Amino acid sequence: MGSKTFEGQPHYEQANASGSIKSMAVGGKPRGSSSGEDGDSNYGEGDEDGDGGDGRIGVVNEAENTSENQKRKKQKKKNKKNKKNKKASTSGLKQTSPPRVPVADLFPSGQYPVGEWLGYDTEGKDENLQRTTGEELRHLVRLRTEDEGFLNDYRKGAEVHRQVRQWVQQTAKPGKTLLEIAEGIEDGVRSLLGHQGLEPGDGLKGGMGFPTGLALNNCAAHYTPNPGQKDIVLQQEDVMKVDFGVHINGWIVDSAFTMTFDPVYDNLLAAVKDATNTGIKVAGIDARMGEIGGAIQEAMESYEVEIKGKTYGVKAIRSLSGHNIEQYKIHAGKSVPFIKTSDQTKMEEGDVFAIETFGTTGRGHLQDGPGVYGYGLNHDVTHTHLNLSSARSLLKTVKENFGGIVFCRRYLDRLGLDRYLLGLNSLVNHGVLEMYPPLNDIKGSYTAQFEHTILIRSAGVEVLSRGDDY
After folding, report:
1. Buried b (16+ CB within 10 A) or exposed e, 416-430
2. How many whole angstroms separate alpha carbon 232 and alpha carbon 211?
3. Residue 161 is labelled as binding a ligand
4. Has UniProt tagged this entry with the keyword Protease (predicted)?
5. Annotation says 48 is catalytic
6. Which value, in Å, is the radius of gyration of the alpha carbons in the chain?
7. Is 243 a catalytic residue?
8. Is 127 a catalytic residue?
């Protein structure tokens, strides 16, 4: 969810933290490297005593006995393997379409895939100047053990995001309404988390991190279908940004991607994806916001896209930024620009950031569009006197069901509320709730977005929401 300026699927595990920046797919050992350990091949069976001798030397009876023993051993292994495969095939769960199987059922161990790991590049540097020494690595392991709940909540949320977005990428096609797509995403997230959010307090345990964003074309961000609006049908020529969040105990996985149905937009998407990945690569402890923005801008603005016979240089949008995330707080104060600035604010160990970029064929400066995307508690307002009982009642409902999570009118309707507009407007007018409008570039332009949630660690960066798709 872009910050206005003034969440099995693909698995990843930690690479060697002291090496160069790279990712490693989960799987542990290369295919076939454990063939001698699990009974799936005959490697190592010919010399059971381990003396390296030739098993054919000896009397005939011993050779026959050995041969018979080997046959029995192979048969036992075959039976064991068949039994194992049978058990897996009858008890293994798979995700449905639409996604409705809770991820807790798909991962009964309660441990979820680690995100992509990017170690800091320390090649050729003195160890004393490196971020990762042996002692720091041991400290990292201790931190991981001590903070297992925090990490697992984030990794679970990321797995939910991956599974839901896979379904979206397969099913969101021209002809569908944006309301159908948004409700499909939200139903999937709630089902996979096991929190429908219909009882007070349940939505604080897990649910949507913010309303599903489905911004089309020149609308860059902050659009979701809401009551009273005309249904918008997705068209073949549309560029749709799909931006949704998943939260568990207030820790929000914020990740977004762009869908198109015409290859003419491919270079626009490639520019923004490259810019986002560049921002991730240069992120880390002590990385300065203005310098990250410079790297993002350089990557994005090296692209051009031709649409309807006209060539456009892809521009970085200047009035949005990435942002750090705190518990129940999607925009926590630090901003990652998409252009080079003089901002010397540094990333710090333990920070969670939404590294996102927006590119456009328009001007790169956004204006507020018509309507309202959503609402969120103003964290700077701790107390105010409200005259309207409807405002007081609505504020109680918001705190019980959303806390600091941004919500939209559809979510209030889903709770069964009605006649709440007067109270809602009162909360906005008193500054208790902040209102988020859609953000648009000039008419006729096209915008794209890609975004990942990352965790800054002492030995590297964990890209929590990374998947095989982006």
Report:
1. ebeebeebbebbbeb
2. 17
3. no
4. yes
5. no
6. 26
7. yes
8. no
Question: 191 and 333 in one domain?
Answer: yes
- This model's pTM is above 0.70: yes
Residues 430 and 446 in one domain: no
CATH number of domain containing 421: 1.10.10.10
Per DSSP, 142 falls in state: H
Which residues fall within 8 angstroms of residue 78, CB to CB, at 6 or more apart?
Answer: none
Residue pair 248/266 in contact (Cβ under 8 Å)? The answer is: no
Q: 254 labelled as ligand-binding?
A: yes
Of 153, 351, 356, 441, catalytic: 356
Active site residue 254: yes
Residue 244 is encoded by which pair of tokens?
A: 């949704």
384-410: average pLDDT? 97
Q: Which residues contact 172 (CB under 8 A, 6 or more apart)?
A: 181, 234, 240, 242, 259
Q: Would 470 be classed as within a structural domain?
A: no
Q: Which two tokens stand for residue 393?
A: 């009642």
Is 331 part of any known ligand binding site?
A: yes
CB 254 within 8 A of CB 1: yes
Task: Give the phi and the psi of residue 119 in degrees, each rounded to 5.
Answer: -75, 155
Tell me whether residue 55 is in a domain. no
Q: Please give the pLDDT value at position 122.
A: 64
Number of domains observed in the structure of the chain: 2
312 and 403 part of one domain: no
Check if the beta carbon of residue 411 is closer than 8 Å to that of residue 224.
no
The answer to whether residue 451 is catalytic is yes
* 451 known member of a binding site: yes
CB 460 within 8 A of CB 122: no
Report the pLDDT value the prediction gives residue 378, as an integer from 0 to 100: 95
Q: Is 116 noted as a catalytic residue in this protein?
A: no
Which helix (H) or strand (E) covers residue 354, if one does? strand 352-360
Residue 129 has pLDDT above 90, yes or no: no
Scored b (16 or more CB within 10 A) or e, 13-49 reads: ebbebbeebeebeeeeeeeeeeeeeebeeeeeeeeee
The C-alpha atoms of residue 457 and residue 140 are separated, in whole angstroms, by 8
Say how far apart CA 16 and CA 442 lie, in whole Å: 46
From 153, 159, 254, 351, active-site residue: 254
83 and 174 Cβ atoms separated by less than 8 Å: no
Set 116, 274, 451, 462: catalytic member: 451
Q: Is residue 361 part of a domain?
A: yes
3-class DSSP state for residue 362? coil
pLDDT value for 75? 52
105 annotated binding-site participant: no
Looking at residue 68, its pLDDT comes to 52
Instruction: Give residue-wise pLDDT tens across range 256-270.
Output: 999 999 999 999 999
Print the domain residue range for 122: 3-25+112-365+442-463
How many other C-beta atoms are found inside a 10 Å radius of the C-beta of residue 184? 19
Q: Which of 161, 195, 331, 452 is catalytic?
A: 331
Say how many residues make up the chain: 470
* Among candidate residues 232, 203, 312, 211, the one with its CA nearest the CA of residue 265: 312
